[in-house]
């Protein structure tokens, strides 16, 4: 899900998706090394999994499949829709040491915080044999969850190659072309995307805007950049980074042209808007596909399509599965997350939900995938090409917080008419307060 954070410490070179190396199948039963740190002693085990957003495991039937393979295991998943709320709650529980699940999801924008500031709170997965999996993931994905002293604190689930999702039925009503190749040419640049939005506005169906929010526009644009909020030395650079300013200014232009539905992402109103047709386009990382399906429902099937993103490839989001040191069933939890992140399972999640795999073997398996819900769009090719072309991103410890302050300030521009300059100053103060 969404990314970012800030602080003048070491940064993580995160692979948007630089994929290399061969992948060995990593299925099932886990590794067993050292001592069994669970308290189950071979009996019945209930594994708790605490996630945010939509990881797709339940939807793809993976929990049911795993429980059939392991009759002694019952899996219970809890969800928090908004990642920021989830992270805040997780920090509270980590500080107190109680109420933690056996498996906790970690968004990619938070992984630097885990490896650099909270490594004592999470289990080193090498103790259960995670070393043997290193060659099965993109190097950058693997290294982002590895501490300087070599501890492995998470296994990668997905990455977030970007595209543009759009409503073909709304495009037709506004007299716009619906062919994904033609649209990719028309909006090859972000200026082209805004111009097409202005055309849409002239004949748009009632109560329908061009895009959902300028926050999503900003997020997708900043995902196209290698350096955003930090440089490779760890210096906080967002104020002077022209890439950040370009994404900000383009988002402000969209607000000033009244192209947005003015919906805060992850809000109930935003969720309802998917089915209501309140916007015609939404910048969508691969993981957004499952979210759209869940919110738009059966009535949205065949009304959506996917085209190449304006301005080039990018990456927004991606996650990890980690095990707190305070977890009750660490060994069994490791066996589960090793199985869930194996190529076979990552491929199944992609085919059901659209979450793009972080394992090279899974990417090979889904290269020809298409999605009937999205008008037969060749999602394997679209997101696969974006993954290959995406930059390797520099992320810092407070990346997610910087991102959140900037998007919060843009919401003030969008919904309250606050000037760009005033909103920028508000964002700077917010960043300073969060970083401390």
From TrEMBL:
Coiled coil: none
Annotated protein name in UniProt: Extracellular solute-binding protein
InterPro entries in the cross-refs: Bact_solute-bd_prot1 (IPR050490), SBP (IPR006059)
Pfam families given in the database record: SBP_bac_8
Keywords on record: Signal
Endpoints of the signal sequence: 1-25
PANTHER family noted in UniProt: ARABINOSE-BINDING PROTEIN-RELATED (PTHR43649), SUGAR BINDING SECRETED PROTEIN (PTHR43649:SF32)
Record PROSITE patterns: PROKAR_LIPOPROTEIN
Domain of life: Bacteria
């Amino acid at each position: 899900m969404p990314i970012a954070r800030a602080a003048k410490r070491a940064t993580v070179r995160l692979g948007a998706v630089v994929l290399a190396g061969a992948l060995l199948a990593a299925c099932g039963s886990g590794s067993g090394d050292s001592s069994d740190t669970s308290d189950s002693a071979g009996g019945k085990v209930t594994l708790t999994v605490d996630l945010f957003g939509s990881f797709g495991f339940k939807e793809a039937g993976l929990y049911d499949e795993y429980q059939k393979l392991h009759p002694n295991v019952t899996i219970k998943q809890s969800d928090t829709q908004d990642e920021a709320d989830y992270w805040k709650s997780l920090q509270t529980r980590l500080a107190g040491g109680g109420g933690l699940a056996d498996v906790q999801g970690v968004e990619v924008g938070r992984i630097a915080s885990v490896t650099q500031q909270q490594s004592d709170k999470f289990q080193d997965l090498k103790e259960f044999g995670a070393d043997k999996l290193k060659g099965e993931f993109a190097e950058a994905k693997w290294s982002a969850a590895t501490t300087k002293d070599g501890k492995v604190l998470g296994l990668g689930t997905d990455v977030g190659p970007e595209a543009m999702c759009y409503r073909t039925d709304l495009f037709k009503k506004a007299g716009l072309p619906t062919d994904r190749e033609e649209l990719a040419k028309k909006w090859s640049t972000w200026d082209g995307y805004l111009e097409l939005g202005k055309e849409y506005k002239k004949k748009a169906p009632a109560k329908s805007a061009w895009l959902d929010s300028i926050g999503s526009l900003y997020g997708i644009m900043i995902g196209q950049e290698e350096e955003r909020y930090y440089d490779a030395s760890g210096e906080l650079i967002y104020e002077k980074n022209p890439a950040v300013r370009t994404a900000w200014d383009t988002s402000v232009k969209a607000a000033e042209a009244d192209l947005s539905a003015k919906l805060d992402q992850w809000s109930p109103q935003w969720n309802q808007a998917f089915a209501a047709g309140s916007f015609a386009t939404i910048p969508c990382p691969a993981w957004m596909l499952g979210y759209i399906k869940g919110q738009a429902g059966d009535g949205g099937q065949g009304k959506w399509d996917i085209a190449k993103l304006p301005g080039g490839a990018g990456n927004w989001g991606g996650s990890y599965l980690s095990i707190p040191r305070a977890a009750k069933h660490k060994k069994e939890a490791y066996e589960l997350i090793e199985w869930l992140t194996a190529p076979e399972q990552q491929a199944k999640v992609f085919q059901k939900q659209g979450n793009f795999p972080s394992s090279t073997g899974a990417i090979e398996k889904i290269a020809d995938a298409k999605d009937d819900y999205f008008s037969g769009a060749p999602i394997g090719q679209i997101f696969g090409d974006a993954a290959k072309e995406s930059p390797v991103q520099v992320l810092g410890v407070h990346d997610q917080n910087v991102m959140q302050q900037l998007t919060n300030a843009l919401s003030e521009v969008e919904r309250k008419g606050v000037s760009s300059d005033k909103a920028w100053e508000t964002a700077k103060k917010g960043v300073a307060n969060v970083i401390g």
